[in-house]
Design goal:
Elements lengths: L4 E7 L2 E9 L39 E5 L2 E5 L1 H7 L6 E8 L9 E9 L4 H14 L2 E8 L2 E10 L2 E7 L21 H14 L11 H14 L19 H17 L1
Parallel strand pairs: 1-5
Antiparallel strand pairs: 1-2, 2-6, 3-4, 5-7, 6-9, 7-8, 8-9
Helix pairs in contact: 3-5
Function: With LigD forms a non-homologous end joining (NHEJ) DNA repair enzyme, which repairs dsDNA breaks with reduced fidelity. Binds linear dsDNA with 5'- and 3'- overhangs but not closed circular dsDNA nor ssDNA. Recruits and stimulates the ligase activity of LigD.
Protein name: Non-homologous end joining protein Ku
Keywords: DNA damage, DNA recombination, DNA repair, DNA-binding
């Protein structure tokens, strides 16, 4: 793995040198975009709006449109905005992780101690494990400030990126009726259905089944075989059918467990 950020964790007056690695990888099938007629790959180019010519990476700058004029920004400008945050993941507070709504969680990153930071790294790891707290922090990576938490996981520290409040849309436009009457019998049966479907969570039991099926189709098409078309028509439950469908669902789970 290649480190995507190097710096340190600010833990009080202690600075722990660390390397940051992405903890996720893309497992999607790599599908190329093709010309429908010739099947030749489609490529995207960085073209100047003014000249129509392709621009090499080294000639590209970032700019902000202000009053119809672009203000050009260099790497030094991004660092000048907050020199400390470009070098240090500063822990600002220790909080209980359960207080953070899961809607705020984003990308995870592995934290590895750099040379000289091994002992301080282990100290922070053990202290977080003992207190069951996470370190709320902020830092700058790729010219963007990130809110994050540092938390213990197994025998290492994990940096979990968070969304800022301003990044979330308001649910005020979502229409959820509050005057719908739920009969006690309907609720009882729904609770029983949840109970029958309840299980311990084990992420290893879940795989990308859609990707597997799509790969089967790709291999069949490669051999010239015809692909049978599967159609699914979803019939929505009407309010008068709710009890009957809950009963059928309970019977289905009961038979499944018995077999």
């Amino acid at each position: 793995m290649k480190a995507i950020w190097t710096g340190s964790i600010g833990f009080g007056l202690v600075n722990i040198p660390v390397k940051v690695y992405s903890a996720v990888q893309d497992s999607r099938l790599e599908l190329d975009m093709l010309d429908a007629k010739t099947h030749s790959p489609i490529h995207y180019k960085r073209v100047s709006e003014k000249s129509g010519k392709e621009i090499p990476w080294e000639q590209i700058k970032k700019g902000f449109l202000l009053k119809e004029e672009y203000v050009i920004l260099d790497d030094s400008d991004f660092e000048a905005a907050s020199p400390k945050k470009t070098k240090i993941i500063e822990i600002e507070a220790f909080v209980d992780e359960h207080e953070i709504d899961s809607i705020y969680f984003e990308n995870p990153y592995f934290l590895e101690p750099a040379k000289g930071g091994e002992k301080a790294y282990q100290l922070l790891l053990k202290a977080l494990e003992k207190t069951k707290k996470v370190g709320l922090s902020r830092f700058v990576m790729r010219s963007q400030e990130h809110l994050s938490v540092i938390r213990p996981r197994e025998n290492y520290l994990l940096l979990q990126q968070l969304r800022f409040e301003e990044e979330l849309k308001s649910p005020s436009e979502i229409k959820v009726p509050s005057d719908v009457r739920i009969a006690p019998k309907e609720l009882t049966m729904a609770l029983e259905l949840i109970k029958q479907y309840s299980a311990s969570f084990d992420i290893s039991q879940y795989e990308d089944e859609y990707k597997k099926e799509l790969m089967k189709i790709i291999k069949r098409k490669a051999t010239g075989k015809k692909i049978p078309q599967k159609k699914l028509e979803v019939v929505y439950t009407k309010k008068d059918d709710l009890i009957d469908q809950l009963k059928a669902s309970l019977n289905k789970t009961s038979k499944k467990r018995a077999s």
